[in-house]
Amino acid sequence: MTDAQTPAAVAALADLVGERGRLTIAFEAATRSTGGWAGARWHPLVRELERAMGLAAALEAGRGDGPVPAPGPGEPQPCQRCGGRTPSQLNGVHWHRTCWLTAGCPTTSADGGTVEGDDTAATEIKRQRPSEGAASAAVPPRPAPRRQRPADRRRGTEADRTRFVDRVDQDEELAAFARALRSVDRRADATDAECAAALAAWHRCLRLRVRGEDRPIHFVTRPGYTGVTLYELLNKAHGAMVTPEALTHPLAKEITAPVSPTVRTLGWLNPDATVTAGMALTELDVTAQYLAASRSVLCGDVDPDVHGSVSADELGTLVGWPGWLQLASAPDLSTLAPHARHALSDVAEGWWLPCPLAKYARQRGVALDVARAVVWPQGRHGNRLDAWGGVVADARRQLIAGTKAGQNTQAHEDALAVVKLTYAGFLGGMLRSEEHNDTGTLRPDWADMVVSQAGANELRALDKLADPSVIVGGLRDAVWLATEPGTAPVRPSELDYADKAGKWENRPGKWHVNRWGTVTEKLARAHARGRIGNVHDEVIAADELRKAEEEDA
Amino acid sequence: MDFDDVVESLAERAGVAHAAEAMELSVGSAGLIDTAVELLSDASGGADAAWYADVMIETVGPSATAAIAGTALRSALGRGASRWLAEQTGKKLRTAQRWMSADCPKSRIDELLTHAVEAAPDALIEAAADVAGEQIVEAAVEAAPDELRAIAAEEAGAEGLTAARLTRATVVDVGTVAVAYDGKPQGTRHIGAVQVAAGSPRRYLDQCVEDLREGDTEYAATAFGSAVLSGYGTGLERTLEITEYQSAVGLTE
After folding, report:
1. Do B18 and B164 form a contact (C-beta atoms < 8 A)?
2. Within 13 Å, how many C-alpha atoms sit on residue A233's CB side?
3. Alpha carbon distance A321, A327 (integer Å)
4. Are A55 and A9 in contact (CB under 8 A)?
5. Chain-centroid distance, C-alpha A122
6. Inter-residue contact A244 to A384 (CB < 8 Å)
7. Which of A48, A185, A259 to probe the B interface (max B CBs under 10 A)?
8. How far is CA A115 from CA A93, A490, B89, in A?
9. Given A250, A458, B27, B79, which residue has the most CB atoms within 10 angstroms?
């Protein structure tokens, strides 16, 4: 049988169960891996097994094309079996994979018929062009009667979370906290006693203090969920705090979708910077960048307004509100400093520019040609993450102080590591996660605003440098400087530092020296070739080399 | 598995079309045609005049084929080519001269090519390669796919074969990967299939192809990971990096 005659399901199954197939690789990876938690190790194998069972079931039913997955994440719809919302689709029907397996791997499409299919690639194309023959596969399924969702530890209901917080099971809390701590680099072997000490430090520092009440905030299941729970606790405790509702606005959801052309994390190289082997290299990082941004960023409530056209006068107001501007043409960035110009160089016609960055660009003389604006106007936005960020920042500050005090240093460091996971997990994960967050804090627009505000703050700080030509490039919260040999680490006087004694010490949003060393030939080459990922790798390598040399000395 | 394993695995599953493309890039088109001619000769017991005539007539038409055969004869025999042809065919010198031009009667082209193969085989192969190289390679791919693939694996290496596959890829399915943030492990993510036909993913994949062809797998690994991550989420390659592929990587072309 030639490749052309082989049913797609057979070929896909061979890829899974054949010699050195995906199942073998996933099994070996799971058994080889020693770190992390069991779910992370074995989940890939479970997924591959599910896929193999699905393909075999499809073949058994006389279908050669197998279950057809959706081309990408789509609008969550009720699962055909349990009624819980899921973006996952099989054969054009919304199913949780586990539900689909439990239901006997049905191979019918949304309308009850079979899905057209000759081969996977063709089906993929048809699915993208429903008007040309695959409409039945693209039609959203009729929602099945919603059933009681089974208790799911990962998707705790509000009642579950309240139970955790108010009548917490100490053993469960410690087990969950230990799991989080042991997921931290170099803490995989933390002992039970160390975990308990770290949790005690957490309870001492992460506290809810409202109207004379002062009680510890418990760790709930995972760092990200703890962030969600903390938000809900604060929301209940502060009567004036707006209760968030999950984002449902279709256009806003489209803009915040992972593959949308929306400016988010910044990364750039400055090709005009002088970078040669032997120069001094310094990596400066913004301390707790997103946590800092969460204190000042404006976040929208409920739905935004959509403006079809925006005058120059209106633009000045709109960029001060949370939201995004869609550009009608690529902006002329020539008025920006090199680092900002390169950081925003991807922005083209049709891209969505978050308002914090749009405001920055406009303040620096960039004329924005706006096709559409999606914004939350006055009265429908506020510093919705400020209270949450305040509690976390306060805990962070106390834990750092505890670390420096020299008592229970390890416990404070460990608790601080889990606090970092918590704010990263909430701001960088749960705000966006339809899979794991079914609360009002499912606000990917807030996440976009935090990231964008952090980026704008970083660019503004770098604009102050008297000699911006030393900036080699930047990635996320890091910026790399190349200076005269022997000068590393450098701390340009125009920036504020969190790693120096004084007013800004340990302050989120301020800079610290993260890595330094000497520019290597490989780093210079990566810069010359414009490969930011390789520059990043070489910065890490240069820092490790410097540390090794210092140890030898 | 690391990126080197991914490259090996993708190369193992490369088809003959990838092999031809990879070879052309590693040995050049002339080298590929030489190999194709050798393979055809082995497969058919020697490429003969009729085969060349078919290929050339189909490619450039009868008139041009006759002119090419004439050129081959002049190249091999110099100024005495027309006289030699007249003697071989028993025709007048003027007739032989006409046969060796674009005015050659269609009914005489086979005869002319037979004489050209006999007297000027190398020049004729060269001329055929110039005008019908693509057809020769296609014929070789059809006649001797396994041999061509084996030669390609030797000439172009796993990197070349994988580069050829990635050039045509529109979807990359990496399944589950282990990721890191700023050099620190961050567990695993199920990425699944991502579109790489356009935009940032395509740009990164093109970088990966370029790096593989230059034998720089370190750069290629970074570029491939960036292609996958940027296909999964805009700008995600600036947040995470892939450190291990826990599933076999598949491509859709």
Report:
1. yes
2. 27
3. 17
4. yes
5. 33
6. yes
7. A259
8. 10, 62, 67
9. A458
Q: Which amino acid is at A189?
A: D
What is d(CA A64, CA A122) in angstroms, rounded to the nearest whole number?
13
Q: Is A285 helix (H, G, I), strand (E, B) or coil?
A: strand
- Under 8 Å between Cβ of B236 and B171: no
Contacts of B192 in chain A (CB under 8 A): 69
pLDDT tens digits, one per residue of A420-431:
999 999 999 999
Q: What is the dihedral of CA A529, A532, A534, A536, to 10 degrees?
A: 140
Strands A213-216 and A305-307, by their bridges, are unpaired
Chain A residues touching B253 at Cβ < 8 A: 121
Q: What beta strand segments (E) does B156-233 contain?
A: 171-173, 176-181, 184-190, 193-195
The upper half-sphere exposure of residue B237, i.e. CA atoms within 13 Å in the direction of its Cβ, equals: 25
The answer to whether B171 contacts A124, with C-beta atoms less than 8 Å apart, is yes
Q: Are A444 and A300 in contact (CB under 8 A)?
A: no
pLDDT, one tens digit per residue, over A147-179 is 333 333 334 444 444 444 555 788 999 999 999
Count of A-B CB contacts under 8 Å: 104
A-facing residues of B in 218-237 (CB < 8 A) are 218-219, 222-223, 225-226, 231-237
Strand pairing of A323-327 and A370-375?
Answer: antiparallel
Looking at CA atoms only, how far is residue B177 from chain A in angstroms?
9
- Nearest CB to B222 within list A260, A267, A533: A533
Q: Please tell me the distance from the alpha carbon of residue A73 to that of residue B192, in angstroms, as a whole number.
A: 11
DSSP β-ladder status, A77-78 and A85-86: antiparallel
Give the nearest partner residue to A29 out of B226, B237, B246, using CB atoms. B246
pTM of the predicted model, to two decimals?
A: 0.72
Tell me what percent of the residues of chain A surpass a pLDDT of 70: 78
CB A221 within 8 A of CB A425: no
Q: Which one of A3, A20, A22 makes the best mutation probe of the B interface by having the most chain B beta carbons within 10 Å?
A: A22
Task: Decide if B226 and A267 are in contact by the 8 Å CB cutoff.
Answer: no
B19 to chain A, closest Cα gap in Å? 16
User: How far is B253 from A526, CA to CA, in rounded Å?
Assistant: 30
Tell me if A122 sits within 8 A of A71, measured CB to CB. Answer: no
Q: What is the pLDDT of residues B7-58, one digit of tens each?
A: 988 988 888 788 888 887 877 777 787 788 777 777 666 656 566 667 777 7
Pairing state of beta strands A280-286 and A478-483? antiparallel
Backbone φ and ψ for A69, nearest 5 degrees, come out as -75, 160
Angle between helices A386-405 and A223-237 (to 10 degrees): 120
- A89, β-bridge pairs: A94
Report DSSP letters for B52-119, one per residue.
Answer: HHHHHHHHH-HHHHHHHHHHHHHHHHGGGHHHHHHHHHT--HHHHHHHTSTT--GGGHHHHHHHHHHH
Alpha-carbon distance values, A337 to A68, A330, A333, A459, B87 (Å): 48, 17, 9, 9, 81
Smallest CA–CA distance from A23 into chain B, residue: B247
Average pLDDT, chain A: 83
Q: Tell me whether 0.85 is exceeded by the ipTM.
A: no
Give, in degrees to the nearest 5, the angle at Cα A90 between A85 and A94. 20
